[in-house]
């Protein structure tokens, strides 16, 4: 259970971002297309060169090899990468209950990755990320490819896991209604920084 802290983080047009996300807290991040949301998540995940630092509790990003950091501070990008031919090869055990909770066919574990729809891929990428037991989550538009029912199902599944596992979470979202449903706090990218927004009830 640790806080995720961004200290003077700068990448691309974003200058000196300071932010603390508490254990189990969901911070939504919005901003115009191209304003730098995905790049900011990639910097936090130590995938792109940046200045400033990120801490998870007492652990500094700069003291940990990138792959180990990303095992703890897990990015689920808008488009996930798949390395093996079948879905099941990406999991260490069958996530039967998770598949059901996410509205996926129980047999999806045995499917070739090539047959997945974009919405199935997105839900399986979330299942895969949580199965790896991260300590913090970075979600880049995790419901972008989903219909309304699946969106609400995934929101509720994520919220439960984030609370239970006390994961500090940054969730990139475009829609105000989604932000109102899931966020504890909301920041919007303005000029070269982030500005906290009032939460609507
Ligand atoms: N590796 C890179 N080097 C330089 N510029 C980049 C790099 N990756 C992305 N950009 C640029 O940085 C800007 C921000 O990109 P980013 O993908 O973070 O936007 P975004 O806010 O996530 O947008 P969207 O809502 O459309 O997904 C864009 O102008 C993009 O072209």
UniProtKB/TrEMBL annotation:
Q: Do the record's keywords include NADP?
A: no
- One Pfam match, by short name? ABC_tran
What GO MF annotations does this protein's record show?
A: ATP binding
Respond yes or no to whether keyword ATP-binding is given for this record. Answer: yes
In terms of InterPro entries, this protein maps to: AAA+_ATPase, ABC_transporter-like_ATP-bd, ABC_transporter-like_CS, P-loop_NTPase
Q: Show where the ABC transporter domain sits.
A: 4-201
Record-annotated membrane-spanning stretches = none
**Keyword terms:** ATP-binding, Nucleotide-binding
Q: Give the PANTHER family listed for this entry.
A: ABC TRANSPORT PROTEIN ATP-BINDING COMPONENT-RELATED, ABC TRANSPORTER DOMAIN-CONTAINING PROTEIN
Give the protein name, as stated in the record: ATP-binding cassette domain-containing protein
Species of provenance? Microbulbifer harenosus
